[in-house]
Amino acid sequence: MSITTSSMKTVRPRFYKTTRFQALIKDIVVYILLIFLSFVFIFPFFWMIDASLKIDKQIFLWPPQWIPNPIYWQNYVIAFTNQYLPFATFFKNSMILEVGIISGRLLSCTLVAYGFARLEAPGKNFWFGVLLATFMLPGAVLLIPKYILFNKLGWVNTYLPLIVPAWFGESYAIFLMRQFFMTIPRELEEAAVMDGANTFKILRYIIVPLSTPVLAVIAVLSFKDIWNDFMTPLLYLNSASKYTVSIGLAYFSGQFTVAMGPLMAASVVMLLPLVIVFFIAQKAFVEGISLTGLTGR
Amino acid sequence: MKKPFFVLSLLVIASMILAACGTTTPATPTVAALSGVVRVGSWDSADALTPFNNAITSFEAAYPGVTVQLEDVPSGYGDKLLAEFASGTAPDIFQVGDGDVAKFAAQGVFEPLDPYIAGTIGNNPLDTSVFIKAVADIGKVAGTTYLLTKDSSPLVLYYNKTLFDVAGVAYPTNSWTWADFLSAAQKLTITGADGNIIQWGVQLPDSWGDPLWTRGILPIIYQNGGDIISPDGKTASGYLNSDATVAALKWYTDLFLTEKVAPTKADVAALSGQDLFQTGKVAMLWTGVWPLGSYIKDTTFVFGTAQLPAGSAGRANSICWAGFGMYSKSTNKTAAWAFLRWIGAGDGAKAFADYALTDVKAIADAQGKTTDPYYASVMSDLGVVHPLPDFTTMKFGDCVNTPFNAALDQYISNGGDLKTIMTGVATAADTCLGQ
Questions:
Q1: Contact check, Cβ <8 Å, A56/B7
Q2: Taking the model in full, what pTM does it have?
């Protein structure tokens, strides 16, 4: 009897030693962690939407009132009917910048990155080092010199200082693209050369079609950066009729006070384009991030 | 600095404390000669831009040759101005807060206005007797006029009439002294059964929950005959640590420490999100004019305003102030002056007066502000405003204000000998100012 018992024990490990149980524990831990992190990331969005539906007094109540009561839609009305806040115009202006900057950045950076990835030139690595050095420079250092330069060109209060530089490359995007292009097998290009393709044709028919993930990453990140950029448009644009969405939102935050409810209401609506762009490009975006090594994979 | 519970309407009032002036149309001979574009920079936003637009419309009708271009910068105004100064392209007329005046004056970005006021440039003189002198004088640095007033606010003593009635205390009058003030505050401080204070006598000079706000404490120092920096901005010793200043600070801090008639920073933080005065948790409030509009709108709220109490040296007040200056590199100075004069003392000033306190006497009279039950005491206290210490040197903030505030905060938490503490601050400030 005792022999049987002991042999049964060795045959059937205790429940906590089973692989099934261990897998379950692992899943539980992972899910708890994921739920916790999701909460951390979702909370600001929840707070924004929550605050957009409250009167100002309720927003900072302590302990917080999680569900707005009553639901106060008026913040949306206040935000979008103010004569000084033409959000349609701000939106249009932001889109002009998005199109102008992203198209320029994709075009110029593809050309430059391909050059760094494949073509040979004396001192190529040195120049690539110089390029990388430019994105180590803090933007604040360049602010005033750039402003003086663009002012001398007579470009202040136009979109040119914002759009034109994008047509001359941008170090971060060039770096990302170069790393991606280097992973594309050379054999594809050699085959194209055999068929008589020149460098531009290789770019057009081989490289670009294979690079949609990295192009999507750059497009989406650029879209977000341009949408959120406050300082550059503020600096170069003088007329309110040329202001962008991010500056428009600042109208709710005065020198001494913040109209928190309307600010959050406008923020909710102005966040939508970002969310839409992200969902459209999500597949290519996530793929691109893993391929270009932005994550630890 | 930002306080969330102010509503949009308050934003308008607070950020637009007002502009000055004139009631007469400028001399006609200059009108035909003026032309071109005048650029105007402002940090105001949204509804606070209404007076700008009204003033611009009336100005352009009077000066058909001139186009005024408003450049409103809702946030980051200071950064943008600095970039524009660096490239020589700042707006012809720009709004300036009282904290930036000394720095900008030292950088030479202001055009001195005295020749324009006298009419020797632009043939468009301005009679400065139309202004409340103490307020208009804020626009001067070391005797030179650089700015005309946009709007301003002295410190105001608000009192809750209901709570005064319940406690059987007589309302504050404009002849109140420190002793009257303290005695009323004591009677109006109520401790609950559990030993916690449930109603305080007064919420002290309050800038968004900071009871150690220097601008709010300055009136008390002045009322006792003290100061915190020499008029030339070169020394703090003998001012910041003078017996008069130390005694004033002792009296002030004792309101928290020994009298316990005022909520401390921690009390205010614990009750954040509500207006302690409007909700009846304090019986008196010592702050600027900015909440006045919303208190008046609350028809269930019975309150009054009074001048600040007088100290041993009599009546005194300080001011929060914004003005308009002319850019020294402006390329259209006579037209810029015409517009500056318009919004500082002309019909344009009326547009601003609708939103905040004007320093043009005739406009304030016409608005009824000087006789209004709420505004009359505010307007009369504008007459006893002292010049701002911030204007004496651009180092005031770093060398005097910041260490002064820190030392006061330390004293409130840890105690010590106030005279010794202030002498330490003053000695360090002298060294800092001399560098």
A1: yes
A2: 0.82
